[in-house]
Specification:
The protein is an alpha+beta fold. It has 4 domains: 5-88, Phosphatidylinositol 3-kinase Catalytic Subunit, Chain A, domain 1 (Ubiquitin-like (UB roll), Roll); 95-120 and 123-203, Up-down Bundle (Acyl-CoA Binding Protein), CATH 1.20.80.10; 214-426 and 448-470, PH-domain like (Roll); 473-533, no CATH class. The protein contains 13 helices and 16 strands. It has helices spanning 33-43, 72-75, 101-116, 124-139, 163-174, 192-203, 280-298, 327-333, 340-348, 432-439, 472-496, 503-506, 509-533, and strands at 10-15, 22-27, 52-57, 63-65, 83-88, 214-217, 223-229, 232-237, 240-246, 250-256, 259-265, 270-276, 306-309, 318-321, 397-400, 405-408. The strands form 5 sheets. A 5-stranded mixed beta sheet has the order 2-1-5-3-4. Helix 4 (124-139) crosses helix 5 (163-174). The two termini are 35 Å apart.
């Protein structure tokens, strides 16, 4: 007996944020991504599931986020074994506003992992303090009878962990908390919850908080990294943040072939900046990540939010539909934000239409937090194959290529507030290249201005569908069908009517043979099928 499709069960492995912890799960062919994520979150007692996602690597070593509304099997059909990694997908701007302690703990585990893999880039002092807080959380208060020797070296906390920084971490771990007798600004005396909250408070203010480094290159071949998080799109060269394009300044995002394109709308002029990715698949992934982050942190409602971008001359393009709640919806649900309708009524005595460009981020900013922005890797291919194309010129010029012909503005003309001085180097020096290369194998391990106001449900201008590019395939198929339908209609007119203009044609030997050998048999075949059907 053959099993029906509904009886088949597939097994998969889900690696959690602690590498030593895995979940063995099962799913049916009809199950969608949402089922698996909810199952994993249920095992972890997580109710704030919207911040998390499942990541996998395809046979081309390209990373993807498991889409919640698509069939699991369709997304990982060529994978063997089927392996997912449970990760934080949307880093909350203020993790201390999270409702559940267990959610904050998972954010902590992700940030701890980012620190170890070199994605949470910071100064030497910040790295030492974060390391000391991890020691405090995992080992408790310093006890000279227990914590002897260089016990810090036994724990892997940083990508490049030197003796100097280990000594500083141990010193901070043994010093009491500032404000207590003998306190010198250490961590001794902190409870696990206090240390965890302090860790999150420091980490979320770092430039490298919550961003994957997507490798790209400029037109000179210089290695750059593209970062995307709750505040917008960022570019980095080495360990220095070079530009920050805020979501409120982004007019449109699309891609063509390997070119990821950001259309910026500043008060003085518009800019278009292109980033060339290692491959078409990597470019689609960057686009999807940018769209998801923008939708999650800027939309007031996620209902029917879908975005389209063309993919080039020979491609059909990509349509992306957002699934799940937005950050504003989560905060309104948890009582951290008043519902939008009541906010509008309180301000103007009645409902008013939302601005065509939403405020960003939607999370209220507290006095204790200042958010700048920044990285985790997305593509596991070698960096040598990665390529941001940004043509330097006065105002704009054309960048030509087989798959793209767009106007690019010089980055030097961007507003001054978008730049930032170089970041201080941490003692265990590493660049974003290091973090990218280190984390590339992670999932591969086995275990517009003047526009009329838009209604609340309308997408912001940056998410409006881009004009579909010309596609040879899309032009060929309708033309092919039109020609064959026209020929079929002409054959019926010639063979089935006695219209005088067609009489001379009927007596030509070629048409007589065509009717006898092809038209008549096909007609008889269709007649029999119609009789059987009706």
């Amino acid at each position: 007996m053959f099993k029906s499709r509904g009886d088949i069960v597939y097994k998969c492995t889900v690696r959690l944020l602690e590498d030593t912890e895995i979940l063995e799960c099962e799913f049916h062919p009809s199950y969608k991504g949402k089922f698996l994520l909810e199952h994993v979150c249920q095992q972890l007692n997580l109710t704030e599931t919207d911040y998390f996602g499942l990541r996998y690597v395809d046979t081309s070593s390209q990373r993807h986020w498991l889409h919640m509304a698509k069939l699991i099997l369709k997304q990982v059909k060529d994978a063997s074994p089927i392996l997912f990694s449970f990760r934080v997908k949307f880093y909350p701007p203020n993790p201390l506003l999270l409702k559940e302690d267990v959610t904050r703990f998972q954010i902590y585990l992700q940030l701890k992992r980012d620190l170890l893999h070199g994605r949470l880039y910071c100064t030497a002092n910040e790295a030492a303090m974060l390391g000391a807080l991890i020691i405090q959380i995992e080992l408790g208060d310093y006890d000279p009878s227990i914590h002897v020797g260089n016990y810090v070296s036994e724990m892997r906390l940083l990508l490049r962990q030197t003796d100097t920084i280990e000594a500083r971490i141990q010193e901070l771990h043994s010093e009491p908390v500032e404000g207590t007798p003998g306190g010198g600004g250490g961590v001794k005396g902190m409870s696990t919850q206090e240390a965890e909250r302090t860790f999150l408070k420091i980490a979320c203010q770092l430039d490298t908080y919550g961003v994957d480094p997507h490798p790209v290159k400029d037109h000179r071949g210089n290695q750059l990294y593209l970062g995307i998080n709750h505040s917008g799109i960022l570019t980095f060269q080495g360990s220095r943040k070079t530009h920050h394009f805020k979501w409120s300044e982004v007019h449109k995002i699309n891609f063509e072939g390997r070119m990821f394109i950001v259309h910026l709308n500043y008060p003085e002029k518009k800019h278009t900046v292109g980033f060339k990715c290692p491959s078409g698949a990597a470019c689609r992934h960057v686009w999807c990540c940018a769209i998801e982050q923008m939708l999650f942190f800027t939309l007031s409602s996620s209902s029917e939010a879908s975005v389209y971008s063309g993919g080039g001359l020979f491609s059909w393009g990509t349509k992306f539909k957002y699934v799940g709640r937005t950050e504003r919806e989560i905060l309104e649900r948890d009582g951290l934000l008043a519902p939008r309708d009541s906010q509008e009524e309180g301000c103007s005595g009645g409902k008013r239409k939302a601005s065509s460009v939403p405020a960003t981020p939607s999370t209220p900013m507290t006095g204790d937090f200042g958010y700048s922005s920044l990285p985790r890797s997305t593509h596991s291919a070698p960096l040598e194959h990665a390529v941001l194309a940004s043509e330097a010129c006065n105002g704009g010029c054309l960048l030509s290529g087989p798959a793209v012909d767009i106007a690019l503005a010089c980055c030097d003309h961007l507003p001054a507030h978008d730049t930032k001085p170089p970041m201080a180097c941490a003692a265990p020096e590493y660049s974003l290249r290091d973090s990218f290369e280190h984390s590339s194998s992670e999932s591969g391990a086995t275990p517009r201005a003047g526009a009329a106001p838009a209604p609340d449900w309308a997408l912001p201008p940056a998410l409006q569908p881009a004009p579909r590019p010309f596609s040879l395939l899309r032009a060929f198929v309708p033309s092919f069908l039109f020609v064959w339908l026209s020929l079929a209609l002409l054959a019926v007119l010639v063979f089935e009517t006695d219209w005088p203009p067609f009489k001379p044609l009927k007596h030509k030997p070629e048409l007589i043979a065509l009717r006898r050998h092809y038209y008549a048999p096909l007609k008889e075949y269709l007649r029999r099928k119609m009789v059987e059907l009706f």
